[in-house]
Amino acid sequence: MTSERAYYHVVFSxxxxxxxxxxxxxxxxxxxxxxxxxxxxxxxLLEMETMPNHVHLLLEKxxxxxxSKMIGHLKGRTARAILLQFPWxxxxxxxxxxxxxxxxxxxxxxxxxxxxxxxxxxxxxxxxLTE
Length: 131
Description:
Blueprint: E1 7-13, H1 24-41, E2 44-50, E3 54-60, H2 67-85, H3 89-93, E4 104-108, H4 110-121, H5 123-126
Antiparallel strand pairs: 1-3, 1-4, 2-3
């Protein structure tokens, strides 16, 4: 019996739906910090893309890793890094929170992996943000 790996397409959004990722510096900071966290924790971050007010991630996780804890850690560390580097965002967001509390996910298998990877990669193009 073979066991397929489990992949998670995770989406979470900025508080109040603010389009902070239209700012290239904030976008770059988020992506760098997220990659660094994944590297430090040994997580497989297969795809990542930002839209103006939300993020798409594709993660492969070990069965013993708790997805909620992983995302909570990722959101906490990225929020802290972004708000330290761009302190004016607190007043722009009108909140002490950078991210909304919730996140959504869909579990995928090897069979749907390439489809979801392409979907995440094409988010900015589909949203009219790139050529």
